[in-house]
Predict the structure.
Amino acid sequence: MKIGILCHHTYGGSGAIAAELGKALAAKGHIIHFFSQAAPFRLNAYSRNIHYHEVEVMHYPLFECPLYSLALASKVSEVAHYEKFDIVHAHYAIPHALSAMLARQMLEDKCSGEKCFRLVTTLHGTDITVVGADRGMADVVRLAINKSDGVTSVSEYLKDETIRMFNPVKEIAVIPNFVDTSFFRRAPRQDIREQLGLGDEKILIHISNFRPVKCIGDVVRVFYEVNRKIGSTLLLVGDGPERSEAETLARTLGIADRVRFLGKLDDIVPLLSISDLMLMPSNAESFGLAALEAMACGVPVVATMAGGFPEFIVSGEHGHLLMPGDVEGMAGKAYELLADGEMRERYSDACVRQAKRYETALLVEQYEAFYKKLLNEA
Ligand code: GMT
């Protein structure tokens, strides 16, 4: 198949999944064309089957806001015309599904009668729960969903939320996120501990884009409680709007020397490999890819019952799920796991086994089947 993939290039789960899906499809012989504002952060692969189109936005004094959505639509239409895509797969409803829809119209207008691609949209989370919930954006999100030929969501939770909010005309298929367990696997490296100046203390880790839904303040507060009982260090990977508040909180609580703000990093496996526990106290999370990647590296997760976490994290087996905001509860469970090596080991093994159920190859097959079904219906 010839497949166009539209995704965000910035750090975030949707861009990661789009890039990993494209790479896996290319490895199976499909021809993949990525469209993005800059190279997607996980697209670090050489393949004869992968093409990348950077979308350049025209700057003109009259346009105060750059017209990215239109430039993207125009670029997809242009490439689809000569490449004859079978599928265009938009990751995240806005602007990608809408740009793809527009590209389809442009193509139909330019060459009437020519077979056009089928449009697949994968809903990732905040495109529905934050952007879609915004009154000013709701109608455009609804249109993007309803005009797609096929819609998938990354969890049952997100499917239910989308139905509740938009009552879409089409069925939504759930295809969960996935992880390449041959890449995401525990490979502890003493040199990493040394480079970071770590001793033999316990390591807690949090990875995100530091947006309000991630509750970074709770990460720091949970860590504060844990660190009072057991010597530990918190690694914070990523960056975003809540970072400076978290830095202030760490200073106020007197634990700044125990909290490492590492910024945005591509290579997270070495950090996960030295970690004992991941903290994900989000108040809304459609899936939580970072948690699945941590589990693949044998890192149990203390997270919330919010959104999609309960669909792949079994509380009491792979970590613990508590109510959002329950800092004391999360700290208690985190301490329990860190203090009992045998228990942590058991949880760690269970995490690795669970992650294998979300192996890339298995879920990529589901996407392929979804594409084929749509093409057969055309
Ligand atoms: O977490 C974010 O805010 C980024 C966002 C994205 O689109 O990159 O992540 C969403 O998509 C990920 C991949 O499907 C999911 O694992 C995340 O749970 C989801 N984020 C939220 O629902 C908050």
